[in-house]
Write a structure and sequence with these properties.
single chain, 129 residues, alpha+beta, Yope Regulator, Chain: A, 6-stranded antiparallel beta sheet
Length: 129
């Protein structure tokens, strides 16, 4: 099901789709943003990098900002801001545990990308302070 939804979305938006392996797909939104989809049966997860972790300075304020955003999903529309396994990048991750029709899938991905873009702008200035 996810393969059909992602393929249709990539075709409609004329964006590149890469099939990583069975049930893992990558949509390239722009040169800075890739969306990694994974089939959960039922549902799917979507993950993308927000920004690299700053190398210097205190991270406390940045972590507090992310925790506030994650609280009840209020600042992420149900997604979660997290760190990757290597603790090098902030990620935005969304898990949907139900099957969606194409219209709702597309709206969900659009919302995810809007929040991703917001957090890219929000976290990057935080890193420079």
């Amino acid at each position: 099901m996810l393969k059909h939804l992602v393929t249709e979305l990539a075709s409609e938006l004329s964006i590149p789709l890469q099939i990583e392996k069975e049930s893992c797909y990558t949509l390239t939104i722009n040169e800075e943003s890739d969306l990694l989809f994974k089939d959960l049966n039922p549902g799917f997860s979507c993950k993308s990098r927000i920004a690299p972790l700053p190398q210097e300075g205190t991270l406390e304020d940045l972590y507090i900002l992310c925790m506030r955003a994650n609280f009840l999903g209020q600042g992420t529309k149900g997604a979660v801001i997290a760190l990757d396994d290597a603790l090098q990048h902030f990620l935005l991750i969304l898990s949907v545990t139900e099957e969606l029709n194409y219209r709702i899938f597309k709206e969900t991905v659009e919302d995810f990308v809007n929040y991703l873009n917001y957090w890219k702008k929000r976290i990057t200035p935080e890193q420079s302070s």
